[in-house]
Amino acid sequence: MVTIAKIMNEVLELPRNDRSYLALKLIESLDEEEELSQEWKEEIGKRVARRESGETSQISQDDLHRDIEKILA
Predict the structure, then answer these.
(1) What CA–CA distance (Å, rounded) separates 47 from 40?
(2) Per-residue pLDDT tens for 15-45?
(3) SS3 letters for the chain?
(4) Per the structure, how many domains does the chain have?
(5) pTM of this prediction exceeds 0.70
(6) Does pLDDT of 51 surpass 80?
(7) Measured between alpha carbons, how far is 67 from 73 in angstroms, rounded to an integer?
(8) What distance in Å separates the CA atoms of residue 42 and residue 70, rounded to the nearest whole number?
(9) Domain region containing 35
(10) Mind listing the pLDDT tens digit for each residue in 39-48?
């Protein structure tokens, strides 16, 4: 019998790129079922505007993980 635990163990053994692709597809499958609320659409619009105006900046995933590890250490 296939269980979630067995699937998870097998997935965690995949290379990082494959796990990332699988995670993206799982998230996309969740997004397909539900429309974003008006509040989220407005928030996304505000965040995009702040990014485009230069008020906020983009950081790499590696830098983000490094910053999180520093905070949690």
Answers:
(1) 10
(2) 988 889 899 888 888 866 667 788 988 998 9
(3) CCCHHHHHHHHHCCCHHHHHHHHHHHHHHHHCCCCCCHHHHHHHHHHHHHHHHCCCCCCCHHHHHHHHHHHHC
(4) 1
(5) no
(6) yes
(7) 10
(8) 32
(9) 4-72
(10) 988 998 998 8
